[in-house]
Design goal:
Helices cover 3% and strands 43% of the residues. With 246 residues, it is mainly beta. The strands form three sheets. Strands 1, 2, 3, 4, 5, 7 and 10 form a seven-stranded antiparallel β-sheet that branches. A six-stranded antiparallel β-sheet has the order 8-9-6-13-16-11, with no helix packed on it. The protein has a three-stranded antiparallel β-sheet with strand order 12-15-14, with no helix packed on it.
Length: 246
């Protein structure tokens, strides 16, 4: 049997080291010898002895109030030995390696999978939560390990060396040490009274030292915890503590 489909670029990529790596730009391969965590429903294929454990009613779920999630927590623990392939709506996938001392704030809707060595908490985005559904809650990852994030299109990484403003639905991740706020981008005018709008009423502001990852798409909110629900309000601060401590 012959076909361009069987070209080397489409064949499974092998490695002697376990862990998360890219099969291609839209497909993540986990060479599994232990465990990792992934978005529920993201598995598209696997080989070997692999088990999938939903976390909605286990160690993760007991820390998360149902009134904040609405739809529960779409995370699963993947255990065993073998190869697992993951994807989500053909999104572009990027790998980020965190080291001890690093902290990254990520929109939960853009998280595909991560090493179980990483810890994360769900926090209110300072200065932006009450004004926009997008980015109301973000996942702050810390520790040492690899995380696979998704974008819709090729992103740009902005170095925050000057006041930086980003659409809340396009900002997918940023250095957790940055100060965030909310900025009115559209100036009030007579046209507003007539129902006219630029579509750019508010933006998130970033200051400090770090970076912001921006995708070329404005996606509706919805994260690992479904926490983009604007009906839930909080005064800020940590929602979960030691999320994966059973």
């Amino acid at each position: 049997m012959r076909s361009e489909l069987f070209s080397a670029e489409n064949l499974e990529k092998e490695s002697s080291q376990p862990g998360l790596r890219l099969q291609n730009s839209k497909l993540l391969k986990a060479e599994l010898n232990g465990e990792f965590l992934a978005r529920t429903g993201s598995m598209v294929a696997y080989q070997g002895q692999v088990q999938f454990e939903a976390l909605g009613s286990g160690g993760l779920g007991k820390f998360l109030k149902q009134k904040l999630t609405g739809e529960g927590v779409p995370l699963m623990r993947v255990r065993g030995q073998g190869d697992v392939f993951l994807a989500d709506r053909a999104s572009d996938i990027h790998l980020i390696d965190l080291e001890h001392g690093d902290a990254l704030s990520i929109n939960g809707a853009n998280v595909l999978a991560f090493d179980s060595t990483l810890k994360y908490d769900i926090k209110v985005v300072s200065g932006a939560g009450m004004m926009s559904n997008a980015g109301l809650f973000n996942c702050v990852f810390s520790g040492a390990g690899r995380i696979a994030v998704m974008t819709h299109g090729t992103p740009v990484v902005l170095n925050v060396d000057a006041p930086t403003y980003v659409d809340p639905q396009a900002a997918i991740a940023w250095s957790a040490g940055l100060q965030t706020g909310f900025h009115r981008a559209e100036q009030f005018s007579f046209g507003n009274l007539l129902g006219r709008s630029t579509g750019e009423r508010f933006t998130m502001s970033f200051s400090g030292q770090g970076f912001v990852i921006v995708q070329p798409s404005e996606e509706p909110p919805g994260g690992l915890a479904g926490a983009g629900n604007g009906s839930s309000k909080s005064s800020g601060g940590s929602i979960l503590e030691n999320l994966f401590d059973d």
